[in-house]
Amino acid sequence: MITADRLKTVQEYYFSKKLREVRGLIAEGKPIINMGIGSPDLAPSKEVINVVQEALSHNNAHQYQSYQGLPELREAIAAFYKEKFDVDANPLNEILPLMGSKEGIMHISMAFLNPGDEVLIPNPGYPTYTSVTKLVGGEPKYYDLEAKNGWFPNFNELQKQDLSKVKLMWTSYPHMPTGATVTKEQLRELVGFATKNNILLINDNPYSFVLSNNPISILSIEGAKKTALELNSLSKTFNMAGWRVGMVLGSEEHINAILKVKSNMDSGMFYGIQKGAIAALQSGKDWFDALDELYSSRRELMFQLADKLNCTYDKNAVGMFVWAKLPSDITSAEQFVDGILYDKNVFIAPGTIFGSNGEGYIRFSLCVTEDKIKEAINRFE
Ligand SMILES: Cc1ncc(COP(=O)(O)O)c(C=O)c1O
Questions:
Q1: What single DSSP character describes residue 168?
Q2: Does the C-beta of 102 come closer than 6 Å to ligand 1?
Q3: 321-355, pLDDT tens digit by residue?
Q4: Do β-strands 139-144 and 166-171 pair in parallel, antiparallel, or remain unpaired?
Q5: CA gyration radius, the chain
Q6: Rounded to the nearest whole angstrom, what is the distance from the C-alpha of residue 111 to the centroid of ligand 1?
Q7: Backbone region of residue 327 per phi and psi (left: phi > 0; alpha: psi in -120 to 50; beta: other values)
Q8: Is residue 94 over pLDDT 90?
């Protein structure tokens, strides 16, 4: 059977292909240390696991669930956003639980893009923004993020371009892959740019609680809801990546458009997962402190590994990765990474998978135990 034309616009996801190669090496007996992907290696809290186990015996646990999620899940998301970001969102109509923020990228794109519409996508940025844009017939229009500008867009440059066909703009602060953060003033600039150019701005915010002592939401900017949506996720904050729980917040009008897509594509999330998500969202300070402690010590070690490779990095960056600049004599990040994979059995992500501005950079994931990081350091002695 000939596949649909849209499949010609995308390739298999880099990690899907590369991890197959990595698994092949492991099957050959190679002692691979995988520092490629940001999949938290620890479990959610005991309370969360208990709640989920207990939920299995509830009366309606195994039935179809509401497309909009349990009202108490939406209320828990609203309370979380109020407490952590000082954002008011109405649980009745301004919050939609998702099966991970990744699916939200597809739903939002299906809800707002017609073929030929343009989408502003950060370079470097999360590759899914590009592939989903292409799958729905939109046109990616990349905007440069560069170290010299703190990985923040240059609006003077952007404003000189023809933006008349641009409908959506993706941002993700704290930024993946660089770990760059923004101030409230910078978020205000982003909202101002989107409002002026009649663009729907989406801030994809799954790293707000990883090594970030100042979580910030685009929706905390006055007037943002008219022009912006925010995606968030329990994957990284609560070690629940495999559970697939995320959320989108925004105006009733925007959320309704997304719900129209989502309710035609899937049914509500499994009841037990929703109950577990509620418990996670209600976690106390201890949870966040422990998360910080864990990733801080891993990051210190990862800096040592980056030093061994003669890389430079920003110690103030946040999130689940160390984004490191390769020495200037290395011209291909992918070749460099493959060399290390085959010589030292350590897998690190090349910056180029996030766009051309990622050339000359590599990304270390902090989802690796301290022992493994130490072992990797030893392999470079
Ligand atoms: C920037 C960014 N957005 C979204 C996601 C997807 O997260 P989720 O597990 O919530 O689908 C990731 C995951 O790595 C990410 O890095």
A1: E
A2: yes
A3: 999 999 999 999 999 999 999 999 999 999 999 99
A4: unpaired
A5: 21
A6: 19
A7: beta
A8: yes
Residue whose CA is at the smallest distance from ligand 1 atom 14: 38
pLDDT digits (tens, 9 = 90+) for 228-257: 999 999 999 999 999 999 999 999 999 999
At position 170, the amino acid (one-letter code) is W
Give the H or E element holding residue 135.
helix 128-135
pTM higher than 0.90, yes or no? yes
Looking up tokens 């201890």, which residue turns up?
286
Cα 239 to its chain centre, rounded Å, is 13
Residue given tokens 């899937």 in the structure block? 266
- Which residues, 6+ apart, have CB-to-CB distance to 24 below 8 Å? none
Q: Which of 13, 107, 176 to mutate to test the pocket of ligand 1 (most atoms within 8 A of CB)?
A: 176
Residue 193 near ligand 1, beta carbon < 6 Å = no
Integer angstrom CA distances of residue 308 from 321, 327, 359: 17, 11, 20
Instruction: Say if ligand 1 is within 6 A of residue 174 CB.
Output: no
Give the DSSP H/E element, type plus range, for residue 77.
helix 71-85
What is the DSSP code (8-state) at residue 257?
Answer: H
User: CA 20 to CA 209: how far, in whole Å?
Assistant: 30
Which stretches within 325-369 are classed as H helix?
333-344
Contact of 138 with 119, CB cutoff 8 Å: yes
Closest ligand 1 atom, residue 176 Cα: 1
284-297 residue pLDDT tens: 999 999 999 999 99
pLDDT digits (tens, 9 = 90+) for 15-57: 888 989 999 999 999 999 999 989 999 999 999 999 999 999 9
Integer Cα distance of 97 and 274 in angstroms: 9
